[in-house]
Specification:
The chain is an alpha/beta fold. Helix content is 33%, strand content 31%. The chain has helices spanning 10-20, 26-44, 82-91, 138-149, 164-173, 201-206, and strands at 4-6, 50-56, 61-67, 72-78, 96-97, 99-104, 111-117, 126-130, 133-134, 155-162, 178-184, 187-188, 194-195. Strand 4 (72-78), helix 3 (82-91) and strand 5 form a beta-alpha-beta unit. It starts with a strand and ends with a helix. The structure holds 1-O-pyrophosphono-5-O-phosphono-alpha-D-ribofuranose and uracil.
């Protein structure tokens, strides 16, 4: 079974609390998505393969640890996932970016794919799918399946807020995928929103409501 890592870190919890507040401005909300994205990336990249490089410090020679340069791609689920890309790229500047467009039907909560554009060599890359919200898990599970259909073998999922229902959905459908979340909330409400959650992440990032 894949790992479930819930960030237990004061900076993440504090920033998430500001985001949850309904009075937080679009500007602040957007900046916080990016900042928390950066902090979770730190954890989600903990097992990146390393190598060493012979260098000379002002004092002596050493075999200095460096990233082995394994190919990496970040894949935001549009729209809201776009808010996390900048934070990931600040940590892994050489990452490629694939986009997958998906929306939930508000009645059925079933996700629909409307766009998918990936780097040509995506099957050879470690993939980090990003989306602020893991609610029923339908969107993330479908995005993971799209990546598997394109031959991807190493896939992780990064979200800001997860519901227990969403975690279970991913574990049932994709037990090989590790999940990294800023927080694990209580439940979903009758409209499929995370409780207490932070509302509609896409609308709050882009100011569309
Ligand atoms: C939101 C969110 C996730 C999805 C989570 O996107 O960003 O992609 O819902 O819900 P689920 O786990 O029940 O599938 P939404 O469909 O509202 O689209 P948007 O990003 O364009 O706002
Ligand atoms: N999508 C959101 O943006 N928020 C939720 O709480 C659930 C799904």
């Amino acid at each position: 079974m894949g790992k479930v890592v819930i960030m237990d870190h004061p900076l993440v919890s504090h920033k998430l609390s500001i985001m949850r507040d309904k009075n937080t401005s679009v500007k602040d909300f957007r900046e916080l998505v990016s900042e928390i994205g950066m902090l979770i990336t730190y954890e989600a990249t903990r097992d990146l393969p390393m190598t060493t490089k012979r260098i000379e410090t002002p004092i002596c020679e050493m075999d200095a640890p460096t990233l082995a340069g394994k190919k990496f791609a970040v894949v935001p689920i549009l729209r809201a996932g776009l808010g996390l890309v900048d934070g990931v790229l600040r940590m892994v500047p050489s990452a490629r970016v694939g986009h997958i467009g998906m929306f939930r039907d508000e009645e059925t909560l079933i996700p629909h794919v409307y766009f998918c554009k990936m780097p040509k060599d995506i099957a050879e890359r470690d993939v980090l799918i990003v989306d602020p919200m893991l609610a029923t898990g339908g969107s993330a599970a479908a995005a993971i399946q799209e990546m598997k259909d394109r031959g991807c073998k190493h896939i992780k999922l990064m979200v800001l807020v997860a519901a227990p229902e969403g975690i279970k959905c991913i574990q049932d459908a994709h037990p090989d995928v590790d999940i990294y979340a800023g927080a694990l909330d209580e439940k979903l409400n009758e409209r499929g929103y995370i409780v207490p959650g932070l509302g509609d992440a896409g609308d709050r990032i882009f100011g569309t409501k």
